[in-house]
Amino acid sequence: MTATTGTTFDVKETTAAVYADGIAALKGAFPRDWVATLREDIDVAFEDAITRPGGAVGRGPKRYYVELHPEQLRGFVDLVTHPWVLEVSEAILGPDYEIVEVGFDIPFPGAVNQPWHRDFPSPEATYQDKRLTSLAFNLTGVDTVPEMGPFEIAVGTQWEQGADWDHQMFPPQTRWSHYAALAQQKLPRMGDVSVRSALTLHRGTANVSSEARPVLVLGVDAPGAGHAELHDMTVTEGFYETLPNQVRHHLSCRVVDTLEPIVQKHTIEGLVMGAP
Hints:
The chain has 276 residues and is α+β, with helices and mostly antiparallel strands. The chain has one domain: Jelly Rolls (Sandwich), CATH 2.60.120.620. The chain has nine helices and twelve strands. The strands form three sheets. Strands 1-8-5-10-4-3-2 form a seven-stranded antiparallel beta sheet. A three-stranded antiparallel beta sheet has the order 7-6-9. Strands 11-12 form a two-stranded parallel ribbon. α1 crosses α4. The longest helix has 18 residues. The N and C termini lie far apart (36 Å). The mean pLDDT is 93.
């Protein structure tokens, strides 16, 4: 697989954008044919996961999250060794950052607006010390158009404490109009990659198209952030031996003889409600 397109970038500019807005992006990071192969792997993984209890978690009506084994993606190494992913992770999280999650969200036709939320409670290091301890890289499997239910993000909200929110993740509806006023709707194309703090308030919107909108998620932590416990990434010994040392250094995983089907750990209760 051809991994990169040679797109240039400025890490300092990206880091500043993530700290200011909670999100940044690199357009054209991967070739379209590389993304098409990624989409094939996502489709195969979904068909397998949806048939098993706990294989796919509802994130609202007609919307699912599926966690993956790294070796289910032919382009996994390409993704985690992309210079932008490497350099942004190190710049924000430090040289010993940990890759803790790979999966995908997939809203199908009929998916509705999610409530405004963040993916986990904010740690003291973030709301008090203004330091980010985790990042989520997203890679779309389609050219996104407004009818597909694009991702919306309320820029700058990664620093809000949220201690009195439901599960410390869901602000009250009385605040939704405020976040809607801050919202930016994202329309990435195949090959674009974004990076965000999962603490920045966001939501998936209604998919009124006739197409699914799969989005790959790569979760990266600073040491000690603790999100690896939500995922329990595993790889086979044979796959692990093929990984570059650079990837092994950052991959938070167990090495096993045989992979077992994943039962999802990272459920988000406020999004499961009303799920299919």
